[in-house]
Design brief:
Layout (H helix, E strand, L loop, with lengths): L2 H12 L3 H14 L7 H15 L14 H11 L23
Helix pairs in contact: 2-3, 3-4
């Protein structure tokens, strides 16, 4: 597991409803006729929604852009009806445990 994937796992564990919120947005986008969508756009909508419902100055820190492709992969794995909803590129981990830099 690379460093980014490990960080993503920690974020998911700390925010168990996060993927549910992502899924809700995907269903909404599909109901509006979207055949495909951007995980980055999904994150921006989540930021907007959370900013309008909380006074926290730290809202954006909770939804790091680095995790968008990992969220898209998890959503398509967990919800078969979303298969192909996001376009994915080959992911090349930048750092793996034990790798020297």
């Amino acid at each position: 597991m690379d460093k980014l994937q490990a960080q993503w796992e920690v974020v998911k564990e700390a925010n168990p409803s996060f993927l549910d919120e992502c899924y809700r947005l995907c269903l909404y986008a599909r109901s509006k006729g979207f055949k495909r969508w951007s995980a980055d756009a999904m994150f921006h909508v989540l930021r907007w929604e959370s900013a309008s419902t909380t006074s926290s100055d730290n809202v954006n820190a909770k939804i790091n852009n680095n995790y968008s492709s990992l969220a898209a992969r998890d959503l398509m794995n967990e919800y078969p009806e979303l298969e192909g909803f996001f376009s994915l590129r080959l992911r090349r981990p930048r750092y793996t445990e034990g790798q020297l830099h």
